Structures are given as C-alpha cells and as structure tokens.
Amino acid sequence: MILIFNATSVTGIKYLDSITIPMKEYSILIIFNLIGLLFLPLTNDLISLFVIVELQSYSFYLITAFNNESYYSSRAGLTYFLIGGLASIIILFGCASLYSATGLTSFDGLFSLLYHDNFSPNLNVGFSSMILGLIIKIGTAPMHNWLINIYSIVPTYVTAWVSLMGKISILTLIFNLKLKLGVESVVTDIVALTSALSMLIGSIGGLFHFKNKTFCL
C-alpha cells in the first residue's frame, strides 16, 4: 500500500506540475481519501459505514475530474459521480431496510440478532442491497464496464489510484462482513458469484481490449 501511495503520488505531482494545477487541493483530496481507506474496514455501524463510504467516494469523483480543462477528465468524473450515486442509493436502501427490520444500526447487534432470527427475508434484503451497492462502487463483474471506460480516459496515476485504493478498503469490509455472517448467508453467495465472474471475465475479456490500461485491469 505504501509503495502504491508513493508511486501514484510522485506521478500525480509531476502530472499536475505539467498542467499547472495547484497542489493544495490535490493533497487535501488524497488526505480525505486515505481517511476513508483507513477507517472503512474498522467501521462497526451502518451510519458510519455510509458516511465513510461517501467520504471516500466523493474524493474519488473529484480526483477523477481534477483536470477540469480536459473533456475526458470531466466526462470521467461525471460518469463516476452518476454511477457512484446510484450505488450510494442502493447502499442506503440496504441500511434503511436493516434498520427498519431490527431497529439497530450497530453490526454487533445485527450479527447477534441474525443468529437467533436465522436470516429473515428482510435482513437478507438489507445485507444483499448493501453488498450490491459496494460491489457497484468497486466495479467488479458483472458491474464493471462503466469503470473500465473511466480507467481508459483518465491519466495513468488516477487509474492506478482509483483502481487499487478504491478496492482495498471496500473489499476488506465485504470479506469481514462475509466472515461474520457465516457461510449460509446470501452475502456469501453474492461474493462467490461476483468473484467467479470477475476472474472469468477478467482473464478472457481482457484479451479483446487494445489499450494497455484496460488490458491490465
């Protein structure tokens, strides 16, 4: 992670110097993004989960569209914002479903209730919606095409930062939830399905891309 941060930061600084964009705003966005990256895997509440996910997401939107003089950066930032906003709505729907079904916001309370309630339909809908929104955020298969289009038109340092840093924290959170919910939950089925599709589509579909960035991702 430290190597990724150093490499993308140095590359980003050189790029920003070449297009005369001030470093102060760029540094603030990186700091906000790192705060989300560090705190998201540690969250233990639905409210803090949504707030931290949005903190990280909005910094990604602005980093993607940082060079607002470029048509491609503006287009990528707007696309990222629209799809990310849709994913946020789905996450919020999942959190609201969990709260309406249980009256709880803490994960500890939800997990203890699950062991006694044996995964009622309302809880399954809530957790499934939340995981689906997080999967859209990180662009795993089968919700990956929109993110590949963004990767292909933004600068390389933005592609490296968004494609790696954006996935680390959310994937860590998803797998923590998967371990706590157990093997019989619908979350396990969703994670298994999207993992299998990502490996299959990533290994075969990449052969039909001719740009280096989309081929590697």
Overview features:
single chain, 217 residues, mainly alpha, 80% helix
User: Which residues sit in consecutive blocks of at least 5 with pLDDT less than 50?
Assistant: none
Q: What would the average pLDDT be, to the nearest integer?
A: 79
Structural class, please?
mainly alpha
Number of strands: 0
Reported for the largest beta sheet, the result is: none
| Strand percent estimate | under 5%
Number of helices: 10
What is the succession of H and E elements? HHHHHHHHHH
Radius of gyration: 18 Å
Give helix % range.
over 70%
- Terminal CA distance reads 17 Å
Q: What's the number of structural domains?
A: 1
Shape: globular
Explain what this protein looks like in three dimensions.
The model has no long low-confidence stretch (mean pLDDT 79). The two termini are 17 Å apart. The chain has 217 residues and is mostly helical. It has one domain. It has helices spanning 2-18, 23-39, 46-64, 71-102, 107-117, 121-138, 145-153, 156-181, 186-205, 212-216.
